[in-house]
Amino acid sequence: MLLRQRFCTKSAPKVKTRMGTQMSAWQIFQYGGNEELTQTTTARVPNILKPTDLLIEIHAASVNPIDTMMRGGYGKAMINLLRQGLWNQAGGTEFPLILGRDFSGVVMETGKGVTRYKPGDEVWGAIATQRQGTHAQYCIVGQSEISHKPKSLSHIEAASLPYVAVTTWTALCLVGELTQKNAQNKRVLIHGGAGGLGTFAIQLMKTWGAEVTTTCSTDAVGLVQSLGADVVIDYKTQDVQSELQRISGFDVVLDPLGGKIPSFSVDLLKGWRNSKYVSLVTPVLSSTDKFGIPLGLLTTATNFGTNIIRGFINGRSYRWALFIPNGNALGQIAKLVDNGKIEPVIDKVYTFDQVPDAFQKVEEKHGRGKTVISIKDS
Ligand SMILES: NC(=O)c1ccc[n+]([C@@H]2O[C@H](COP(=O)([O-])OP(=O)(O)OC[C@H]3O[C@@H](n4cnc5c(N)ncnc54)[C@H](OP(=O)(O)O)[C@@H]3O)[C@@H](O)[C@H]2O)c1
């Protein structure tokens, strides 16, 4: 376990135009298992097509559960709709598909409408699902999807945070309505505290003064305590449901895992208005994959409505959250990092040649913090 593992940050490379040349990348040509991941040195360096887009040289990226799921075709119905340009997002073709949703790197070129960044700037970001991904030497991002990277971190350290940080921000702040001002002394339950998302969420809530309860395996108890968790339930040796019921009355419950957790977690909330159960396991993408877009959305809406009614009966609210790119949130998180409030938790760093090994590790779902790929220095 590497808590705040230190790597050298290299100075920004000489800026030069790379448009129209070739790059190294990991691609898939059809959905499937890890055997579909193909390394190439002749992928096309992407072009800037929108004025607010930038070309980034990627120094490091992370692997998230969404990458292994997208490799298998998860979300393809909705993501293809987005790729076709509906909802006004620049997407592109389905295959060959480069996976990877976050990065730390350097701006190489900017579109004419980019106001906040210039070539040579060190930035980090988490990009929309319909974009070509970050497991490559270069990628295109929108200026609203990135911010300046924390100065105190190397690219490898920085790459561990954007996707989980932005997802946590959406879940706890935008959907759970917690802010730096109102989180003080709020009781927050974070299921799965040892993973990439949990290790960030614990730190953000502790920084804002919340009382944090979390669940994890025996070997991770020390890790989540070192991040500030006030109450830790070991789900390998304790009866999680009865332990949590004993101390129930949470203002917000964050559930990244699903399974049996929702069946008892909504009842752990305070029994009056303004307590919220926020689930990161939404059926919208799997339902649209299974039933097609119209029926899938209808099924999801019905499911959501049922849960809302269940929550309302008890005066609690049941909400879903999904990753949404958010450069503003990343800017605020970069300040917290540079002020020493939040540290990256890195489980393992892989070289660019080892991307399939990194996918396998994430697919095993036993993360202790994040899995990162070193790209520029591999
Ligand atoms: N909706 C969205 O937009 C969105 C975005 C990001 C993430 N997510 C979801 O959030 C989940 C977590 O993401 P991540 O990046 O943190 O994954 P991760 O790094 O693989 O971590 C998963 C963690 O969950 C723990 N865990 C598994 N079962 C548990 C249980 N019953 N009780 C407590 N802990 C348990 C695992 O620890 P053990 O080894 O002890 O089992 C592991 O530490 C993933 O399922 C992901 O798909 C959703």
From TrEMBL:
InterPro entries: ADH-like_N, ER, GroES-like_sf, NAD(P)-bd_dom_sf, Quin_OxRdtase/zeta-crystal_CS, RTN4IP1, YIM1/Zinc_Alcohol_DH_Fams
Domain spans labelled Enoyl reductase (ER): 32-373
Listed pathway(s): Cofactor biosynthesis; ubiquinone biosynthesis
Keyword DNA damage attributed: no
GO biological process, one term: nervous system development
Family per similarity comment: Belongs to the zinc-containing alcohol dehydrogenase family. Quinone oxidoreductase subfamily.
Name of the featured protein: NAD(P)H oxidoreductase RTN4IP1, mitochondrial
Organism: Potamilus streckersoni
